[in-house]
Structure to design on (526 residues):
């Protein structure tokens, strides 16, 4: 019997991306160069960094004047004021600025420094996350489909920390052609008991697996293709993974704290 | 040029595990049946549920009398009192019991209901997490090495929720033969800038990727073998992934809340 397998393939011949570069053409050239033949159902896991760069989401440090708020947060925590300023500009809310800078971005993602990052950025520059990662994923998928005539999935990824677990993991910040979740509700378990719930964030799991191939440093692997994973397409995107504020235990505490502090 | 690939292989001929079953022999029989030949460096990602079952970590609901505390939490949240009681017994601290039951287990893991679960458990029974998942992983690795004479990695996994992101993902609750983290500090990025930090939780990323093959229902795939991922062995295990209390922003809030409430 042939076992079920899933394969992840690293595309390591993608050059450094610059603003305005035609990302999909560059990715498809790298696919060709790798000798890998695309199939129906292949999933492109793409580092959000190259998407940001192609979209021109790069800021020169010298063009930024940090606000008083940014300077205050930077001083209290030993952070770079420019980095803090950019994180604040990219955010709608600061979740915590004590020893960390965790924010909610305009697209609803909760992450460190609004995902603003200096690694793999040109000297003296910062890379911001794509403005609307789900829209970016849709655009990439549309172009991939146009060029290949295949049904594919696209997941844009970024590495992030977790409140209760040490170390970064890749998560999905945008997706297209693949549903964010896989639903197990109603399926029987090994003993025939019907599962009442159990919703899995499949895009985060696929994102996580691509990281070991991508790396965080100069590995030069911004795209990983996953083959053999069966998935459904639907209306859900990565934005649907962000827990709404009213379900967020952490922020509920913060707000209650506020109430108590006032009373 | 041959692209770098990582392959995940599902072992789908493992029978339902009962207390006392020789887990490693059963897994190796399934490997043989699958026609897959083990190599140096293969990583066994194993559902903690079959480890628990083989270790007899199963409790009959009818043998449990819920405490007053458990009944209170169950009543306020519409939970099953027996499930709450077991979660409390398996915990050292309740992190939140408002709409959820998030606890810290004896082994330091922060999770829902201390990982106590009814899915894929025999009728009227609950499966607890392995008592010391890192030790279980070490034992499994030792037996695998004895039988195969290969250097392998072992990761025990469980699916868990996240504070800021919806949907479950697999995380590593035990490991052996593979370090928990991969360190990028000191590596140059694409532009030659040296990374100052960036520690990746590689065991969580490998755990996450195995889930799509394992499933949560009656798929009957409790073991996935990952091949092609290069890793270092070291002294770190999955227990080192648990963020210590003093770094836990969430609990810091809870405690501060307590202080304010008292003042």
């Amino acid at each position: 019997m042939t076992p079920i397998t899933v394969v992840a393939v690293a595309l390591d011949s993608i050059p450094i991306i610059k603003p305005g570069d035609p990302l999909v053409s560059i990715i498809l050239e790298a696919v060709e160069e790798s000798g890998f033949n695309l199939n129906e159902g292949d999933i492109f896991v793409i580092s959000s960094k190259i998407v940001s760069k192609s979209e021109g989401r790069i800021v020169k440090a010298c063009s930024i004047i940090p606000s008083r708020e940014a300077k205050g947060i930077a001083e209290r925590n030993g952070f770079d004021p420019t980095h803090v300023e950019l994180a604040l500009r990219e955010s709608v809310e600061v979740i915590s600025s004590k020893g960390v800078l965790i924010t909610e971005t305009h697209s609803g993602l909760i992450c460190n420094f609004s995902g603003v990052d200096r690694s793999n950025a040109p000297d003296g520059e910062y890379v911001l996350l794509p403005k609307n990662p789900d829209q970016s994923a849709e655009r990439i998928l549309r172009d991939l489909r146009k060029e290949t005539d295949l049904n594919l999935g696209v997941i844009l990824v970024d590495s992030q920390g977790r409140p209760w677990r040490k170390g970064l993991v890749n998560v999905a910040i945008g997706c297209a052609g693949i549903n964010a979740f896989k639903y197990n509700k109603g399926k029987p378990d090994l003993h025939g008991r019907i599962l009442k719930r159990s919703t899995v964030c499949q895009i985060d799991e696929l994102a996580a697996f691509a990281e070991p191939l991508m790396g965080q440093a100069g590995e030069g692997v911004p795209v990983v293709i996953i083959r053999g994973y069966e998935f459904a397409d639907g209306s859900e995107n990565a934005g649907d993974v962000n827990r709404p504020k009213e379900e967020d235990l952490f922020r509920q505490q913060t707000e209650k704290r506020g109430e108590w502090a006032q009373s």
